[in-house]
Each structure stands twice: as C-alpha cells, then as structure tokens.
Write a structure and sequence with these properties.
Length: about 290
C-alpha cells in the first residue's frame, strides 16, 4: 500500500494527527490502531478523550475500529470453507480473540488535511488473522459532526469472513441519558458469547440505571445521547449495536457493528450479519456522530 500522505493542518510525530472544524477538534493516533484519541468541543470532551501524546494504547482511546470482526471469536478458532483456522490471545487473559486486529496495529496516514484524514492498514496473514486484507478508515469533521467510514478489501485469493464496527467510549456524566430503538437483545454466557436472542423494547433511560453488556438486533434510527452538556446523535448504516454500561467505570459504550458476536459459529452466520467477502471485494460501513452543544 502506498504510504505517501497529503499533509496539511496540524501534524505531530508519533503517529498523531489532528483535524479541526469550527469548535470541534479531533485527534487521531494512526500508530495505535487508527484510534481516536479524543474529540472535543472547545476544551470539553465529547467522547472519552485523552491528549494524543498521553495515549498509551488503543483500549484507552475515545474510539477504535473493529476489523475484520467485532467482539468475540470463540476460543480462538473457527472452521471456514472446509478448513480449520486458529487466531490467538489478544485481550489480556480472555479465552476468545476480541475485536479483530486493526486496533492492535499501526496504520499509515494516507491523507491529512485541515478537516479530514484517511488512514490505511495492510494486513499480512499471521497468528491473529489468517487472511490478507486492506482496511481504510476516513474521518471528516464539520462544525457539527464527525463522519467516519471504514472499509475492508479482501486481498487474499479465497473468500474470507468479515465484519466491521467501532468501539466509541462516551463520558458518563450525572445526567447521561440513552435512547435507542432496537428489536432484540442477545443474552450471553459468562465469557460474553451469545446464547439466546430475546425480544427487547426500546431503551430510554438514564445511563446510571442501566446494566448492559449486550448486542442488540434491529437497531433503527440514531442512538440519542444527552447529558446536559451535549445532545448527540449516533447513526450508521449498520443494524447491530453493542451497548456496554459498566457500573464502576466513568464511561459507557454504544458500538455500531455489522454482526452479532461470534457470528461465525452461529447456525447461519450470514443471518447474524457476517459477510463473505470474495477476493477483490470490499465491504464498507459508516458512522456519523452529530453534536449539539447545550
């Protein structure tokens, strides 16, 4: 992949890239999994934000990409097109592989301008993922929104299973409120593998009262987040949503994803959102975060 970049606007060593539009500032760390270090309105964080020079890992970031799959891949193995494959440990002592490989790798800065940037990653088959692919993530900032597009292109000579998504972290403020329209919730076992799907009414509640770590099907319309500081609208062309509201953490997560966790081991992976990407094929998704300061 061409590593040349068109660079303008703010830039700094160590893989840090910044873009600005109006009162919004977006800081990226290409070298830490193409993660968003922070998104601010003035000096106020919109996402859980860290100045890029202080960020040590993608897991501490404001958001990172999920590619070539979302959430868990059970027990680091799968069967595909008549062959058995393995992945590897990538998330502490978790028995499953988690969130793909993109968040673990350094990406190239392909484009960097005042209000937008494009980052790219070329994957060579390894212990984490057995198929070659190229991924691209583009960021466009306006005075009222952030638009992120993520794509994966199969550069292997056989079809491969793929999924995409994002893992944004939102600050949990005293008045944080979440409203989402969904149809079903996946209940999970103790290791966060889905075990059954149950009907789920729409969620309209204070975040501090929620106890969720689930994937939801049938996501319709934007997820609305309000906290007395911002009104946010998170939308995507993806129809699955992971919501994580840890009681003991100062953040919560609302994650657009293309498939149910561990979809590859389901009875019908395609029905669970997993894509079969032919050689040379590309799968693309987008996410938009609209920001209104109160």
């Amino acid at each position: 992949m061409n590593n040349a970049a068109t660079v303008s606007g703010d830039s700094s060593p160590g893989g840090s890239v910044e873009v600005r539009a109006g009162d919004l500032r977006l800081a990226l760390r290409a070298d830490l999994g193409a993660s968003i270090a922070g998104l601010w309105h003035g000096r106020t964080p919109i996402l859980r934000s860290t100045e890029p020079g202080d960020l040590a890992t993608a897991r501490q970031s404001a958001c990172y990409p999920l590619v070539p799959y979302s959430n868990r891949l059970a027990y680091q193995r799968f069967h595909w097109l008549g062959r058995d494959y393995t992945t590897t440990t990538n998330f502490d002592d978790n028995p499953h592989s988690v969130h793909g490989v993109g968040w673990l790798r350094a990406w190239d800065v392909a484009v960097h301008r005042e209000t937008d940037a494009v980052l790219r990653y070329r994957h060579v088959p390894d212990a984490h993922w057995p198929f070659a692919f190229e991924a691209q993530q583009s960021f466009t900032l306006t005075p009222r929104s952030l638009v992120v597009t993520l794509s994966i292109t199969n550069t292997a000579d056989i079809a491969q299973p793929v999924g995409l998504g994002w893992h944004p972290y939102f600050p949990k403020r005293d008045r944080s409120h979440l409203r989402i329209a969904v149809s079903d919730r996946w209940e999970s076992d103790a290791t966060q593998l889905p075990v059954r799907k149950v009907a789920q009414p729409d969620i309209d509640a204070e975040v501090t009262g929620l106890r969720l770590d689930n994937c939801f099907d049938g996501w319709r319309g934007p997820a609305a987040i309000s906290d007395g500081v911002f009104d946010l609208r998170l939308s995507s062309n993806l129809t699955h949503l992971v919501v994580y509201t840890p009681v003991d953490k100062p953040y919560f997560c609302v994650e657009p994803v293309s498939h149910v966790s561990d979809a590859i081991h389901g009875d019908s992976p395609a029905a669970l959102g997993l894509r079969t990407l032919l050689p040379g094929g590309t799968f693309e998704s987008s996410m938009t975060l609209e920001v209104t300061a109160l």
